[in-house]
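User: Could you write out the 3D structure of this protein bound to heme C? I've included everything you need below.
Assistant: Certainly. Input first, then the structure.
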Amino acid sequence: MFDKKSLVLMASFLMLAVFSPLSGFSEEPANCLVCHSSMKGKILSPAGHMIELHVDTDRYTESVHGSFSCTDCHFKFSENPHASPGGVVPQNVLAVSGKISAKHPVDPVAAAACVACHEEIYTYVLGSVHGRNILEKNETDGALCLDCHGSPHYIRKKEDPESSVSRGNHVKTCGRCHGNRELYEKYGLEKNVIHSYEESFHGRKLHLGHMKAPVCSSCHNAHDIKTKDDPSSPVYGKNKLQTCGKCHEGANEKFIPAISHKPAGPIPHYAEIGLIILTMSVFAFVIIHVLLEAYSDIRDAVFRKKEDD
Ligand code: HEC
Ligand code: HEC
Ligand code: HEC
Ligand code: HEC
Ligand code: HEC
Ligand code: HEC
Ligand code: HEC
């Protein structure tokens, strides 16, 4: 008789009827959470997007933006219910929202709202290889804020172990895309970056909890990420002197090629085989030597015995 969506809507409006005298349509998070903390699961919105309705009050409050009104980002939703959103949107937020609406179709204004308070970072990201993938190539594969920082409602400080960009989670966060075959093949990127990092001296040190071991952003930046062929990239040519030099005092041109993500070439492979053959022959030589010596000892003993007889 009723589908799931109309039931959710009916329940919501019922709740609104109950709570509205208390809320008076002001903009406190509680006025939105009245519905959004109690609604669970995903539904298809009227605009045709699959959306997650639930916002967890405790996790929201504990997040870095926990003291904010929902409408500090959801500028358009300044009136309840939000059948016809109409809040005033700052000019710089509006400009960015137009550029990223294919990436964030549910509420592009909210996804652009970060620029109101994190303007410098947003500008870096839009100019990065990730941002240009969206603005210039009209793709949606490049990373924007939420791809690296997770749900906009539960962002934590980078020092917090639960943050998606903490030292413990950092590699996994980049790896969600850079370890994804479909993506690295589509853009012709080196397929081995995550694996080669984890196998490297640095990756192993990080795994052991070494606090100074570099993570991806130590060599590539976090927001101002460029392709390796861009002269302003920290891993372009001689820029590596400075990048490695942050931690390796006196890093010179012989040292800096020591780290890339390229699979080890054929030369170390043959060197390894050569080493194995060498070790085996030494063993064989020693064993044969011992056997011959034993044989000659036995033969001498037998002869001596015969002479004694
Ligand atoms: C009366 C209950 C109710 C209240 C109060 C409410 N919402 Fe919603 N919200 C819903 C329902 C139901 C949906 C899904 C259907 C829809 O989009 O209308 C939704 C969807 C959304 C979406 C997804 C985008 C969209 O257009 O579907 C956003 C964002 C949102 N709400 C933000 C807010 C904010 C911010 C507030 C407070 C200013 C708020 N909501 C208050 C019930 C409510
Ligand atoms: C720091 C900014 C920020 C704050 C504060 C914020 N939101 Fe959001 N919210 C976003 C962004 C960004 C999206 C994703 C929009 C998109 O992908 O198109 C979003 C999406 C949503 C959605 C849709 C979920 C989905 O699956 O796309 C709902 C519902 C929602 N917010 C409700 C709320 C409520 C309720 C509050 C207050 C308790 C709140 N938001 C506070 C930034 C924020
Ligand atoms: C490619 C992944 C990525 C993207 C995209 C990204 N960030 Fe970050 N962000 C990080 C990492 C990693 C750190 C932690 C850097 C560190 O440990 O020094 C960080 C740190 C931060 C910080 C803390 C201050 C600082 O500079 O260390 C803020 C604030 C921030 N990001 C906001 C944003 C906003 C806003 C956006 C979108 C415009 C965004 N980030 C996009 C990865 C990303
Ligand atoms: C109304 C201003 C405002 C908006 C809008 C806003 N932020 Fe923030 N954000 C802040 C402030 C202030 C802090 C620092 C909180 C603190 O130090 O406790 C912060 C902290 C952060 C941090 C953690 C920084 C760290 O120290 O590790 C990240 C990441 C972040 N914001 C990302 C975003 C993203 C992504 C958006 C958009 C979805 C956004 N912010 C929207 C004001 C804002
Ligand atoms: C110690 C420094 C260092 C660290 C840590 C590091 N990289 Fe790199 N990365 C480099 C260098 C140097 C290059 C350029 C190699 C070249 O010129 O061929 C590079 C190249 C890349 C490329 C381009 C590869 C291509 O040829 O298509 C990607 C993507 C990349 N890194 C991602 C990552 C990710 C993700 C992480 C974390 C898991 C990471 N890097 C950690 C130094 C580093
Ligand atoms: C949402 C997916 C996604 C996430 C998350 C992501 N990236 Fe990327 N990254 C891409 C895509 C897609 C490209 C290729 C864009 C293009 O060429 O248009 C790219 C390109 C790059 C390049 C340039 C490669 C080259 O030399 O051309 C580097 C370096 C890089 N990313 C590093 C990182 C680091 C470091 C992180 C984590 C802090 C990260 N990325 C997180 C999707 C992602
Ligand atoms: C954020 C700091 C940091 C950055 C940036 C960094 N490294 Fe390292 N690196 C370390 C640490 C820490 C160790 C482990 C040192 C130890 O335990 O002795 C290490 C170890 C190494 C080692 C093996 C041991 C040695 O000292 O010879 C090599 C080789 C190396 N790094 C090369 C590089 C190259 C090349 C770059 C630049 C592309 C680079 N590193 C960038 C911190 C860094």
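Residues 13-26 have pLDDT under 50 and may be disordered.
User: Perfect, thank you.
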